[in-house]
Amino acid sequence: MSAPVYVLDTGALMAYAQGVEAVGEAMVAAADTHATVAVPLVCLLEAYSLLDHTEHEYLAMLRRNPAVQVLTPALHVDRADDCPVIGGMARQTGRLGAGHAAFLAISSAAGLITSRADQVRKVLGDDWPIIEV
C-alpha cells in the first residue's frame, strides 16, 4: 500500500460522517491516483466517542474503503516507539487525536484534513498543506 497523501483527524472524520463534501472529494482524488488516506486510530476512537451512534455507520463505510488505512502508533517500550513523540505533539496541539494526526502527517509527508487547523499548525507550521473542513 502506498504512503498516504492525506491524514484525516477527528474533526475530518466527524465532518465526513455529517456529509461534508470536501472530505469525500479529497478521498476520491486520492483514490483516482491510487494513493491512500490515513486515519489515526486515536482520531477514529475520538470520532466514535463524539458522534451519535446513528452516525457510526458512516465511519464503518469509510473504514471499508480500500484507499483508507487506519494506522496505530508503533508500540515498542524497549526501543524507539511513537508514543513519546505523539504525546509531545498532543501537548502542543491540545488534543491527543490532533497530536497523532500531526505525527502521521509529518512521518508520511502527507497533507492534513482537519476542522481545527489552528491546533495542528502549532506543530506543523503555517506552510504545511492543510485542508480545513
Rounded mean pLDDT score = 94
User: In total, how many beta strands?
Assistant: 5
Helix count equals: 7
SSE sequence, one letter per element: EHHEHHEHHEHE
Tertiary shape: globular
Which segments are poorly predicted (pLDDT under 50) over 5 or more consecutive residues? Answer: none
**Biggest pleated sheet:** 5 strands, parallel
Strand content: 15-25%
Classify the helix fraction into a percent range.
40-55%
- The oligomeric state is single chain
The side-by-side strand order for the widest beta sheet comes to: 3-2-1-4-5
Q: Structural class per helix/strand content?
A: alpha/beta
Distance between the termini: 26 Å
- Rg value: 14 Å
Describe the protein's architecture and organization.
- This protein has about 130 residues and is α/β, with parallel strands linked by helices.
- The chain has 7 helices and 5 strands; from the N terminus they run E-H-H-E-H-H-E-H-H-E-H-E.
- The chain starts with a strand and ends with a strand.
- It has helices at about 10-15, 20-30, 40-50, 55-65, 85-95, 95-110, 115-125, and strands at about 5-10, 35-40, 70, 110-115, 130.
